[in-house]
Amino acid sequence: MAYRGKPSKACQRCRERKLRCDLRKECSSCLRVGAQCSGYRDTEALRIADQTQSVQSKVLGRKAGKAKASPVVGPAFEHLHLPVDIGAQARGFFTACYIADLNRAWYFMVPHLQKGNLPEHLALCLDAVSLAFLHQRTQSTSARDLGFRKYANALRMTNCALQNTDPTQVSATLGASLLLDLFEKVMNPEASNHKAKRAHLDGALALVKVKGLDSFRTEADKRMLFRVVMNAVVTSMSRKDPVDPEIPRILTHVGTCGGTEDWSCPFEHLMFEMSDLVSGSSRGTLPTKESIQKCKELDRKFSELPVPGESKGTNFSDIRKRSPIGGETDAGYSNGKNLGRWVMTRSMMRILLCEEIVASSTGPHTNDADVETSRNTITDAIEDIGSFAMAIAGRGLSISNKIKIEPGREKPHILTVDHFVDLTFLVFGLCIAAWAPHCPQETRDWNLKHLGYIADYYGIRDAETFRQYLLKGGKKLSPWDVYSIMGDHSFVL
């Protein structure tokens, strides 16, 4: 409220025209022209007036740099949000998860993105993969259909780019081949045609052979070649095929892994050995006794791998004690992303090797000591996965058994991209642990319960799918099948 002084008693017409009013009910000025007179006013009722709205308008007008504020009329403005293109959403999500911010498995794409003008075939491949990735995570039919259309155009444009002799386009074309390979693996994880599944990977290897390793010299090129190596090794291991002879040469050219994480290099060499071992065992070219011995030797090498982010000589069992299953701290997991991949990959390899030892130790090859040691190793590897699960829970993911899910919750918890990548690692690891034939029943129940929490609270569809499969006693679904169905080729261990 504000005092506005003594008001005039004149009628409305006299005030507006600034005439002298005789202060009657019908003043002479109005009668003279035949106008309707409003009569004089009661000044006592006009001394106090509510000027709140006017004052607010003036203040807001000054803040906006306006010379004169007008009174606020009508309802306040509503904030309207324009719809975002689904392709832009998909590319932004894929970029945040696997290129620029978190996992960085496709970090070699950054130089191409920074140029601002991607080659058309590479841009189409990136859009197709991003839409496939969005569909895989959200089951969006719009993303799926648009992704297939982009993929068809990308194939045509990439075939045209292969005819281009410009040496500056070799890197972009190799990147396009890798993206097309990822699209096939994400959109058709259960495809039975093995040759079709690895057609783009074989094309990438052929391109490297034709153009020569000397065509790939930049840091981004080396990262890309390392990606080719990882794709080839994982594909070979999942299909129990020997590694392409060109792969060791490529890795030698890459040298120090082109700036990739230090832990990846020793892992890669061990995975070469394991791929050859698995291939020889499945084809019957490796005697059982020799196979068991190689499995034991490889398991020893995996157990001695250096822990990323820790001082040299640190044993992982010491780190695990800082964050045991059921604990409330993640003190041993300060380097979360690299250590998470390290834990899951190391644990899976050791479980696979030791399960092979137990399965092969029958008849004349029975060795009770080896079987007992292998079973203990399997238990330790599963404990490693459980410790990492509790570490993630300590970083803010409400999946531990001390967290109660809200009853009747209709919508899943909204994930940050950081948490999403954590959960991707975690679901994969929990599935591996629960799959292991020699996993203790109590530990398997613990893993299945946490898969249920992740599915219910975070809306991760794959977690519930694998949980139901494992509850029914499914053992034919190997860790590599889980890896493929989840679309985790996007980060390749």
TrEMBL record:
The keyword Nucleus applies. Residues 304-329 are annotated as: Disordered. This is Zn(2)-C6 fungal-type domain-containing protein. Gene3D superfamilies: Zn(2)-C6 fungal-type DNA-binding domain. It comes from Corynespora cassiicola Philippines. Coiled coil: none annotated. PROSITE patterns: ZN2_CY6_FUNGAL_1, ZN2_CY6_FUNGAL_2. Residues 10-38 form the Zn(2)-C6 fungal-type domain. It comes from the Eukaryota. One of its GO terms (molecular function) is zinc ion binding. Keywords: Nucleus.
